[in-house]
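Hi all, long-time lurker, first post. I run a small reading group and we've been trying to get comfortable going from sequence to structure in the token notation. Rather than ask abstract questions, I figured I'd post a concrete chain and ask someone more experienced to write out its structure so we can walk through it together at our next meeting. Sequence below, copied exactly:
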Amino acid sequence: MFSELDRCFRYGDGLFETILFVDQEPVLFDEHILRLTRGVQRLALDYVVDPANLLKRCRLARNTATELASAQRHVVRVQLSRGEGGRGYTPPDPPSIVREVITCHAIPLIPDVIKVRLLDTRLMISRLLCGIKHCSRLEQVLAASELLTGNKNGNACCWEGLMHDELGFLIEGTRSNIIIETKGRLLTPLLDRSGLRSTLLDSLNASNAGSEAVKSVRMRLDVDGGLQVLDQVLNDEWLPADRLPPTAWEACPIDGLALCNSVMGVRPVSELAEIKLPSGRLITNFAAELNARCGYA
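-- Answer (accepted) --
Happy to help. Here is the structure in token form:
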């Protein structure tokens, strides 16, 4: 029974993971377990991540979802709350029992042709919370609302919006990570200060070829879809992007762009800010290989 005293409801004091299942088997399960474990440690939840037991309960949730009986693919959501108690923000002492909720639903509809645009909503910098899938996702909610409002106001109907952080560096989409092909390279934004790295990107570290295929760098996009990549010597600088010297940036063509997350795999993008994008050879081959290897449609 839900309680209004639940800390996840009151403060977003919890974690979640969304895991794709294909033919009853989880995709990237080990990576989800690692990220969930990092989150449990970061939030100091009184919870032991037991992969075997968690997988058993995920499958049970799938089997009880009768409306998905014939579905080959589905998504299981695992959500943890610190539970009830504590005075204000202070967690209860001794800890209360962590509440675990596991649900199952159909995979979201993903268009064959994906268009994206830049959003004004900025992501806050937080090295403490970046990289864990905590339940306080208001920045993504506001960004998704901005995307929806823009689509209703006559802009080209875009499936996803791309977000920069408060210093002006490109980070991620509202629900996806970004991969860009340029000058024979595959690049993705560096996510050490903000954002959430997909378990799909984490899985690339499992093979030497994969870990070398996509390089994390600081970058930014302008309103016309132009890409600028920061000199890596300046990666640790905390200056806003527009206060760094022009010589710090390398202007790069966008030879291809894709979005990815653990539910949809890697999906090429056809338009950025109403500008048609090329279908880059590297990114097309990368998407096909990775989607086949991980079991995406």
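A couple of things your group might point at:
The mean pLDDT is 91.
The two ends are 37 Å apart (CA to CA).
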